[in-house]
Amino acid sequence: METMSQTTPTRVVMKETIPLINKPQRSMFSGCCTVWRKWFAPRELKSRTVHIGSRYQVFDKQKNQVKNEIRNQKYNVITFLPLVLFEQFRFFLNLYFLVMALSQFIPDVRIGYLYTYWGPLGFVLTVTIFREAIDDFRRFQRDREMNSQKYRRLTQSGHLEMVPSSKLKVGDIIIVEKDQRVPADLVLLRTSDKSGAVFVRTDQLDGETDWKLRLAVPATQKLQSDAELLNMEASIYIERPQRDIHSFIGTFSRQEGSEEESLDLQNTLWANTVVAAGSAVGIVVYTGSETRSVMNNSQPRSKIGLLDMEINGLTKVLFCAVIGLAFVMMCMKGFSGPWYRYMFRFVLLFSYIIPISLRVNLDMGKAFYSWQMQNDPEIQGTVVRSTTIPEELGRISYLLSDKTGTLTQNEMVFKKIHLGTVAYSNDSFELVASTIQSLSANINNDQSESTTKSVFGTNVMRRPEGWRVWEAVKALALCHNVTPVYEENDSASIAKSVSVEIQTERTYQASSPDEIALVKWSEQVGLALYDRDLTSITLQLTGVVRSSDNASILTETTDVSTNSSLSHEKFLKFQILQIFPFTSESKRMGIIVQDTSSGEITFYLKGADVVMQTIVQYNDWLSEESGNMAREGLRTLVVAKKTLTPEQYHDFESKYSAARLSITDRLQRVQTVVESLEREMELLCLTGVEDRLQDQVRPTLELIRNAGVKIWMLTGDKLETATCIAKSSHLVGRNQGLHVLKSVQTRTDAHLELNQFRRKQDCALVVSGESLEICLQYYQYEFMELATNAPAVVCCRCSPTQKAEVVRLIQKHTGKRTCAVGDGGNDVSMIQQSDAGIGIEGREGKQASLAGDFSIPQFKYIAKLLVLHGRRSYKRSAQLSQFVIHRGLIITTMQAIFSAVFYMSSVSVYQGFLMVGYATIYTMFPVFSLVLDQDINEKVALRFPELYKDLAKGRSLSYKTFFMWVLISICQGGVIMYGALVLFEDEFIHIVAISFTALILTELIMVALTIRTWHRLMVVAELFSLGIYIISLFIFKQYFDWEFIWTYDFLIKVAMITAVSCVPLYILKFLRQKCSPPSYVKLS
Question: EC number(s) of the enzyme (predicted)?
């Protein structure tokens, strides 16, 4: 034992010395990397437990220190200047001129004045910096406004304090009032409603304007006051932050060991939703970047237009030409002495081949196009928020649109009901109302319960005439999640009324506008939803006003009325036993109610025809009629019922409760129990509801489709709804099929479905968000190949992140330009990802409008924005950029010829102000007036949208057109310079006068030859520039011989050179227009 005690420590010491030996080998670099990873690594997202009660709040707030701030800024004080300059010098054009301008500080290579290089470059950079600063400051102001909104927070002492939303932390208990934005992700603890229910608007999160029902945790709702929350010893386990806005997993547990309560989506309030009614008390569980809304938004990016990238590529070609030309001159001069200095001087001399004025002219032109868009009287309210990419609207190949609020108004109108033997529509709804009125009279007259049962009994043989109408209307009035809301003091005012008939205004809250349309229609025909809470529903048989000639029937919604023409009203009360909410998987919604007067238990079910056909009893009309309604663009719902005995219901209830408490496969077990009821149900009716489209959506989509633009609809709505809108809006052409991609769960499913779609011809595709994700995971290339070639695509149940990903994949796979249109906060990521984002300022707020590059008040404005303004912006920018390049090429050609003739001298042919004036006051106004040119008028552009197709090919600015202008520039520059050298007689100053005058006249004539539609300002610009030049001939005597320019010899030589350089081009243009005119010329 003694030996062991001596050896053991020795062994331990040897192990400890191993790391001591290795420590000195650790470098400082590896230590810095560790610190860097620790500071700048992305935050790890973990599940957490949040405690309720004052004794735990301090502990909770020390953890999860994610600031609850909204930040949409691109820059901060430190990164602003570096990032803006980096974005600018990413353009080769700007980087090239920066190097050229810096070289002028070196005396040996200086060839002119500093302002000739630094002036234009400084102007471009100053304008850009100020523009970016103003845009980012506006974002900062909007963020500050949102972050400074005050909320009431419950303190540890039980008092309330007002705190800005940016100061909220995990574990805070806050109160959110009606119409107030939810500042962070909350778990709902209490509401002002005794039932614990509250409605929220989620339009800024998922794009749906429907109100969603949320429920407080039952254990906390039972407390007498909010202050008692601090005395609880409870905790909430929550899952790690994630993007999915349609799910949540949590557990509420008391410290004293009582049974845990499971929490789901209904117990949450996500950030950026709005409390629609009452007030809510919630505990903060996610803040800042961990909230669902922020995780589904992408960072704003600086967009660069395709035209800018093409010009950037052309400037690189021109740079290679400069280097090549300088190298040729050095080869002719010889590489003797400080040849590299001469080489650089030649590069500087020929640097005008890449004109810095190109960026100035393009930026000014884009500002003018933006001004035109904003001041077009036919699209009033249009705002251009990004003036750098207006020409992108002229080259769009894919238009991606949201549905709710963009294509549709999200206002549902009940259009048709089919009962199997008879159908009713707008012109025959009065018959339904009269049937309900006659049957309600039987209820009023029969006082005993037994008599009521005999009238509306379940025995088929004893059912009175009109029973099916009554049961259908009653089912629609009961099977829903709608809650009626009355204006304050309405009841009191009606009760006080004695002699005056007062009509009560009912409004409805629901998670689906379809359900509101159904309930409003049931009220219209005489059976109104009067009251509802979590346990009961009260229906009201409203009075029916008949005109004197009994020709028309008008339903009233008065609660109490003294008008003698109204029949006595009856209230029907039902107890809610079970509710089975609608899900995208089940595609149906059910409710079990018990009539409080008769005790009858009835199970009502409504859902999509595809799932209800197997649930209802055999019939021979449902499939045909649902197809007919769908072709009319109506959203169909099948309604059925089943009467249960008390024994049947109690047996179901015990099985259902056991399934809900199971830990494993809970959803599957619950679904199995519910499906045991959904057998051999009695079919009552088929309903058709129309979602009203935005104004002129159909002709707008048709025009855009004829323009060669493929349209995709990305929506968070249900598949059936999206399909109906695709048909009714004519998103899918009349002669095109519609293929719905079935639910895909595995790689094999995706393979089979894609093969099936591949066999379809001229067929639009409909795919859900879940199936889309699987297809992109395993067959991204194959899916995008099929989808991008389809005439139209509808993606439903899409999250905001998926929308942006779809846009990115289209850009990556096709390389073509995309335009995204939306009106909700859930469309922001898609708008920012697209090449041209358009936000519609509508009912869902201004978030999409503010995030877009363009903002419009109505969807129909998109047609003119693309087909007319987009076309003009692109064609004008292409023409303007090529002409500015031509202006630089022609003077560079003249400089090269001059240097070659005069012994390879690296001296500028035009000194001082002449070089600056050539690109500014002498030619700037005529060249810039090209932004007023138009190839076709507005009427032709809108009547023949097919002309838009050619723009996507990019032929207006291509290497072919570029080299044509290069050839023209070389020919004209050669003619002018050689002509001046041949015709001058004795003095060098005469070469300058002849060649420069001919050059200015040539540029003015070339502008005139390029113009297709004259504008009076173009004429003014030409005459003004010519007048300025003539005046300068007399002012700048150091550049021009005063006596020589007054001679006929000067005028004749200038006229001859100008004619030789321009007349051949005019002849070629005339012959081309006669022999091979463009398509738009034929139409004009």
Answer: 7.6.2.1
